[in-house]
Amino acid sequence: MIRYDRSRRRFAIALAAMAGFVDAVGFLSADGYFVSFMSGNTTRLGVDLGTDVVRAVTPAFLIAGFVAGVTSGALLSIRAGRYRKPAVLTLVAALLLAGATARALGVPVAMLAALVMAMGAINNTFQRDGEVAIGLTYMTGALVKLGQGLAGWLAGRKDTGWLSWAALWGGLLSGAVLGAMAQDRMPMACLWIAGCWATAMVGVALRLPAES
Q1: Half-sphere exposure of 180 (CA within 13 A, CB side)
Q2: Based on the structure, what is the number of domains in the chain?
Q3: How confident is the model over 98-136, as pLDDT tens digits?
Q4: Three-point CA angle 183, 20, 149, nearest 5°
Q5: What is the distance between the alpha carbons of residues 94 and 101, in angstroms, rounded to a whole number?
Q6: Which among 39, 72, 127, 177 counts the fewest CB atoms within 10 Å?
């Protein structure tokens, strides 16, 4: 996060907020399972395998869908080259709009499949040397870096990079709040909002300065 310029940091925060929005909608639609937080789903999978094997189908399905989304996004990013960001986000937008369509048609399984694949794919947006540089759908690593940076600041270092990690976490939290409100108040519209949000991010990605 701290290695990127200000425009890309803001872009990452906006994407994290979108991920939080979608994950809140998915969480409320999937009986407490997640469409972006696979650590939580893995724990649920273990609990379900140990207590009620039939229920384990849901977290297993979501984890497999997430991996499929990551794989699809990674393949697309390799082929897109310098246009990786807009290409990946176009895929994310298409999946979110597909999820909105599935909800409108009353097919919740297809909706969740589209959402979890979108959240997997979006993590290919920021890469360095072929690896994820900023995780947009999971914040454990960001909070660790926030704590480490805060410790350095309290110890007298001038580095304020921890503020960027705090902002990224705040973006996901803010998006989750908005997603929960949207799901509660206008459930048939919230995924269309997410799809339009992702489409707008494609335009932002195209306007970002070229990376070295």
Answers
A1: 10
A2: 1
A3: 999 999 999 999 999 999 999 999 989 887 766 666 777
A4: 155
A5: 10
A6: 39
Q: Which residues contact 92 (CB under 8 A, 6 or more apart)?
A: 73, 118, 121, 122, 198, 201
Q: How far apart are CA 151 and CA 168, in angstroms?
A: 18
The reply to whether 24 falls in a domain is yes
- Residues in CB range of 49: below 8 A, 6 or more apart: 56
Q: What HEC string does 115-130 produce?
A: HHHHHHHHHHCCEECC
Q: Which tens digit of pLDDT belongs to each residue from 34-64?
A: 898 888 899 999 999 999 899 899 999 999 9
Q: Could you tell me the CATH number of the domain that includes residue 25?
A: 1.20.1250
pTM, to two decimals: 0.88
C-alpha 113/C-alpha 96 separation (Å) is 10
Other beta carbons within 10 angstroms of residue 206's beta carbon come to 11
Residue 134 located in a structural domain: yes
